[in-house]
Amino acid sequence: MAQRPISFTVLSDMLAGLGRSALFLLRILGGLPSVLVRPGLVIQQIYAVGVLSLIIIIVSGTFVGMVLGLQGYNTLRNFGAAESLGVIVALSLLRELGPVVTGLLFAGRAGSALAAEIGLMRATEQLSAMEMMAVDPVRRVVAPRFLAGALSMPLLSAIFTALGIFGGYLVGVEMLNVDAGAYWGQIQNAATFQDDVLNGILKSLVFGVVVSWIAVYQGYHSQPTSEGVSRATTSTVVISSLAILGLDFILTGLMFTGE
Amino acid sequence: MDDNLVEIQGLHFRRGRQVIFDGVDLSIPRGKITAIMGPSGTGKTTLLRLIGGQLRPDAGTLRVDGTNVPDLGRSGLYALRRRMGMLFQSGALLTDLNVFENVAFPVREHTKLPEALVRDVVLMKLELVGLRGAHRLMPEELSGGMARRVALARAIALDPLMILYDEPFVGLDPISMGVVVRLIRRLNDTLGLTSVIVTHDVHEVTAIADFCYLLSAGKVMGAGSPQSLADSASEWVRQFMNGLDDGPVPFHYPAPDYARDLLGDAA
After folding, report:
1. Residue A128 and residue B81: Cβ atoms within 8 Å?
2. Which residue in B81, B90, B109 is closest to A132 by CB distance?
């Protein structure tokens, strides 16, 4: 076989991987109707990927909000605009930090777990056994996990954002004596449902779909060895994080320009 | 009705550049236990996956109960698999479900039986393998032999035509081994199954097999009853069946002259 330049091979491998993962996504979507008939499977997975991620989301959300409160207050005070603290905290959380940081934490906490679980099922022949029992593992194992991940992410992001705004309130109002009425009033005034809340939810939904997709793809196609599972877990976190940051830039460009 | 449940003709299969099967013909008689033996790495497990349609051959026909497996689409394949059970080497129990739910899994997936009936079916299958009392245990609480018996109960849950056993004797203590060996024979006869056992444990399998095939290097090297193979005219077959350390398969990996290797040119 003629030698191809390495850059060409890397590019063609990447394209082939993209194609395979797109086909895999189609298979998952094809399996969704059969999942909806058995909501029990999804609820179980929402518990595993969503509820069990709550602690890290709650703690991180509160602290990110508190830090925003501190930093925002120190800067705004120089301009005599400390009353606007609420707007800074709320908008940065609603538009960016809520979806993005939740997405990154979600990839680390739930995405890696999904990839490892499915990868180990592959390595221990559980997926093969299902196929031989005439049960499609994409429908029975992958689709419920994918759906649960995609649904959990916006909810986690909403919790993160709400607690972040509360964290900003704790620091700004309770510690630094910003007027409580100003804090909440300015948020109500400046943040709109359509532009800020809805766009944030949309972002988190996109991140949820992408992270879950990457996680189940990596797990399902991992090499059936301990090294293969570890590689699948690592790539899930790395690729998901890069995808979230890249997509966030594109989504922000589409959503928040031309105002 | 055809006497052979599985008919394989001119099977060719390669993985990458490695040729696994190079024109294999074999047939598996109905109602009997057929052993497929061969050295490690001859593609015995691959053969089971070809029969189950998880892999597609490069050439050749592979008929199970009259239908050519490689021709089947996904739904046809799934319909066929509902009539075969497969026992994996590791047992491959679903680790998030207990013993009862593992055996109930194919029943729940493929039938709409009421819960009371599912319970009866599962307990009956577990009773057959002697593990009715263990139905609440989780897979990690089972010994290797028990896990394989649970997997066996799961494989027969839907009353299949045929069971494919992938190395059922590997890593078992003598008692568990004896239990599994007798269980395979008993289930085959009482449930009217056809069993295919892939193994390299000559001693255990010849005790229960009705017919044996010996595979090596992509070909069928010998076929016949266990006794006739042990007395075979082929030196290779005799070496394998009797576990001799030297013969057509040499004990030594090809190497340069021993004396020259040790002493150099002084030899």
Report:
1. no
2. B81
Give per-residue pLDDT as tens, A212-240: 999 999 999 999 999 999 999 999 999 99
Query: What is the least distance, in Å, from the CA of A134 to any CA of chain B?
Result: 5
Is residue A68 left, alpha or beta, with left meaning phi > 0 and alpha meaning psi from -120 to 50? alpha
Yes or no, beta carbons of A129 and B88 under 8 Å apart: yes
Question: DSSP characters for A78-134?
Answer: HTT-GGGHHHHHHHIIIIIIHHHHHHHHHIIIIIHHHHHHHHHHHHTTHHHHHHHTT
Q: How far apart are CA A43 and CA A158, in angstroms?
A: 19
Return the percentage of chain B with pLDDT > 70, whole number. 99
Q: Which residues pair with B8 in a beta bridge?
A: B26, B62
Rounded to an integer, what distance in angstroms lies between the CA atom of residue A130 and that of residue B139?
A: 16
Interface test with A, best of B50, B87, B90 (most A CBs within 10 A): B90
The type of residue at B128 is L
Find out whether B150 and B137 touch, Cβ atoms under 8 Å.
no
Cβ neighbours of A140 in B, within 8 Å: 109
Q: What is the pLDDT of residues A93-140, one digit of tens each?
A: 999 999 999 999 999 999 999 999 999 999 988 998 998 888 899 999
- B108: nearest CA in chain A? A135
Q: What percent of chain B is helix, strand and coil (3-state, nearest 5)?
A: 40, 25, 35
Give chain B's largest Cα–Cα span.
83
CA distance B102 to chain A (A): 11
